């Protein structure tokens, strides 16, 4: 096999060692030996040639060697595997079909389904969108509208202007940060039920502040309070934010950080499932709006369903694997074989030079794969026979052989296209949103993988595997999916190589940031919940029977309240801990009181279940009010959060209770 790239001057020739099985044993390939020819000559503007071997450009090109070697190893592995693979057939959508599917994914299918276009839930959802998010929705609705009218002239499709009822905005207009926003209505700004003032949700389009004024001063601070697409709209024509453009070595990656939020940082897994559904819809709309603003095409890929294995280890869908594994280990969220392979690699020390880069012996890896399929679940497989490089090869094989890529068919191209965004900060923001869009099983497995890769990098002084090396080796395993046609892979390989390696580098370097749910999205969820509650109460007020039932229920609940729960003084919250010896405690709020302080007070009680619990096992939860349920991080300032959600209940429990 021989691939060429005129643009990069690289020739990759498949390695065929004589009398060798392609391994690292005697007669096989040794570390760093593979056939790779580079053309270091390049024409200058006046037509003369010069040698690039000493230039920085040449160093950047040579640093891709690990990538090309990994591609070669992958093709050799596939060459030794004669089993037939069924390629995923990419469905070519009709006009408007992609946008229709997008609206369904965003939870807005009722915008083009006639019977439910006035859905209360949809109206509430749309009322919380920022101007750039609305523009993204409008664009897709208009495309679907035009398509439907062409197909069926008699079908009534709502006009996009009627859907949003934008007062002074023209269709699709993007906020410039200075115009008043319709996101925050007078009602939602100043009123809660009962006439009390409620929390005000700043979604990045505050009518008194420009997003520019709210942006952190540092270029390395990631602002999670303002919509990323709103930020991009404001900085699109500005030189600000373009400082961190381009590639570079490990040391040149910006030290991005998330400034502390007094109301607490929200991580994936901290919210209740009903709120996470809202997060998914908002993240999809926000990502699309961000790509729209930055001029990058965003299209979800769609694959025709194919027949997959319904048992086994390799080439089995993650959902099937987890179903099998949960019979063995209830509640497990990561495939057991995946966990075991990582453990096997770490058991032998992460200081091994060339770890992940040097392949295992090909024939031995294939034999181990077959043996694992037969014996893993029986518990009879002998792990002492698995050498470290073989385990690393099996781990990468597991990722490559998934019937659908770990980053999913739908979003694989969007992950690849992150490299096209203008600045590193915008690339990181897009990756954050893409992680939110992954199915839970994919997201959890990716998290474990990235954490493992970071541990490998932590031993780089010994194993010689820097962030760049690890990214180069792992990128082909996540981004070159065998389900797509080989023609597509070959055509895109050289184009995507450096970009996907950089995306891989970002995912490893900034993984802690990627699992954070931006505050502006959490605030939009809060706003949706608040508006839904208001509409429900208004509907009840219009019907006498429902109003009477609500009154009777409220009266009954008031009678049932204990003296401790009633008439809680201003500035005091009551915290429940049903699983601890001290089940309830009144807590006086102060400026410096944090969630960790409250947990510590309960854990200081030296009786009952508390003796068996560790601090890292229990958390304070915010429940109800304008959120379903939210696990609080230790550094949450309780007085600030109480002001944001005064109607919440506060409960201490473990994450698994």
TrEMBL record:
SMART domains: RhoGAP (SM00324). One of its GO terms (cellular component) is plasma membrane. GO terms for molecular function: GTPase activator activity. CDD domains: RhoGAP_ARHGAP18. Residues 46-57 have a biased composition (Polar residues). GO terms for biological process: regulation of actin filament polymerization; regulation of cell motility; regulation of cell shape; regulation of small GTPase mediated signal transduction; small GTPase-mediated signal transduction. Residues 316-515 form the Rho-GAP domain. InterPro entries: RHG40/28/18_ubiquitin, Rho_GTPase_activation_prot, RhoGAP_dom. It is found in: Cytoplasm. Pfam families: RhoGAP, Ubiquitin_RHG40_C. Residues 20-30 have a biased composition (Gly residues). Its main location: cytoplasm. Keywords: Cytoplasm, GTPase activation, Phosphoprotein. Residues 1-58, 169-214 are annotated as: Disordered. Interacts with MPHOSPH6. PANTHER family: RHO GTPASE ACTIVATING PROTEIN 18,19-RELATED (PTHR14963), RHO GTPASE-ACTIVATING PROTEIN 18 (PTHR14963:SF6). Rho GTPase activating protein that suppresses F-actin polymerization by inhibiting Rho. Rho GTPase activating proteins act by converting Rho-type GTPases to an inactive GDP-bound state. Plays a key role in tissue tension and 3D tissue shape by regulating cortical actomyosin network formation. Acts downstream of YAP1 and inhibits actin polymerization, which in turn reduces nuclear localization of YAP1. Regulates cell shape, spreading, and migration. This is Rho GTPase-activating protein 18. The gene is ARHGAP18.
């Amino acid at each position: 096999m021989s691939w060429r790239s005129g643009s990069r001057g690289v020739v990759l020739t498949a390695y065929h060692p004589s009398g060798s099985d392609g391994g690292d044993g005697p007669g096989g390939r040794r570390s760093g030996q593979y056939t790779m020819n580079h053309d270091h000559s390049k024409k200058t503007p006046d037509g003369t040639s010069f040698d690039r071997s000493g230039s920085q450009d040449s160093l950047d090109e040579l640093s891709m060697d690990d990538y090309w070697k990994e591609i070669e190893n992958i093709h050799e592995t596939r060459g030794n595997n004669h089993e037939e693979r069924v390629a995923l057939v990419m469905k070519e959508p009709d006009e408007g079909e992609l946008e229709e599917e997008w609206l369904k994914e965003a939870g807005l299918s009722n915008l083009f389904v006639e019977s439910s276009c006035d859905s209360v839930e949809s109206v509430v959802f749309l009322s919380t969108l920022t101007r750039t998010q609305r523009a993204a929705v409008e664009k897709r609705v208009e495309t679907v509208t035009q398509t439907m009218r062409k197909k069926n002239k008699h079908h009534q499709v709502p006009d996009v202007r009627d859907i949003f009822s934008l007062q002074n905005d023209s269709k699709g207009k993007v906020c410039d940060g200075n115009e008043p926003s319709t996101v925050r209505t007078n009602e939602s700004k100043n009123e809660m039920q009962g006439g009390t003032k409620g929390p005000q949700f700043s979604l990045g389009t505050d009518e008194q502040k420009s997003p520019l004024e709210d942006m952190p001063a540092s270029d390395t601070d990631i602002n999670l309070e303002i919509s990323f697409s709103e930020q991009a709209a404001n900085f699109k024509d500005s030189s600000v934010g373009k400082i961190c453009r381009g590639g570079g070595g490990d040391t040149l990656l910006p030290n991005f950080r998330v400034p502390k939020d007094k109301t607490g940082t929200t991580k994936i897994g901290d919210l209740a499932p009903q709120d996470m559904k809202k997060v998914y819809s908002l993240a999809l709309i926000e990502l699309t709006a961000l790509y729209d603003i930055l001029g990058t095409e965003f299209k979800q890929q769609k694959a025709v369903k194919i027949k997959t294995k319904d048992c086994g280890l390799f080439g089995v869908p993650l959902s099937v694997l987890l179903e099998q594994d949960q019979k063995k280990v209830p509640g497990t969220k990561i495939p057991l074989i995946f966990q075991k392979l990582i453990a096997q690699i770490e058991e032998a020390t992460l200081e091994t030079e060339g770890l992940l880069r040097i392949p295992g012996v090909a024939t031995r890896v294939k034999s181990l794969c077959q043996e694992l399929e037969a014996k893993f679940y029986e518990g009879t497989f002998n792990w002492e026979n698995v050498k470290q490089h073989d385990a690393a090869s099996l781990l990468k094989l597991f990722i490559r052989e998934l019937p659908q890529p770990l980053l999913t068919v739908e979003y694989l191209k969007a992950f690849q296209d992150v490299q096209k965004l203008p600045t590193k900060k915008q690339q990181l923001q897009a990756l954050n949103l893409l992680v939110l869009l992954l199915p839970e099983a994919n997201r959890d497995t990716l998290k474990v993988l990235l954490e493992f890769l970071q541990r490998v990098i932590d031993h780089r002084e010994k194993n010689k595997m820097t962030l760049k090396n690890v990214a180069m080796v792992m990128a082909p395993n996540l981004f070159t999916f065998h389900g797509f046609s080989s023609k597509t892979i070959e055509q895109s390989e050289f184009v995507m190589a450096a970009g996907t390696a950089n995306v891989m580098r970002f995912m490893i370097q900034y993984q802690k940031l990627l699992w954070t749910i931006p505050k502006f999205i959490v605030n939009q969820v809060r706003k949706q919940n608040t508006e839904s509650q208001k509409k429900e109460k208004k509907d009840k007020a219009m019907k006498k029977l429902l109003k009477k039932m609500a009154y009777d229920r409220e009266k009954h609940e008031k009678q049932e309240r204990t003296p401790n729960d009633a008439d809680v003084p201003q500035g005091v919250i009551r915290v429940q801990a049903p699983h601890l010896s001290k089940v309830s405690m009144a807590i006086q709020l102060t400026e410096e009181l944090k969630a960790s302080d409250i947990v510590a007070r309960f854990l200081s009680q030296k009786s009952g279940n508390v003796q068996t619990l560790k601090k890292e096992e229990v958390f304070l939860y915010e429940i109800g009010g304008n959120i379903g349920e939210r696990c609080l991080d230790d550094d949450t300032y309780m007085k600030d959060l109480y002001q944001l959600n005064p109607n919440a209940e506060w409960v201490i429990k473990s994450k698994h209770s």
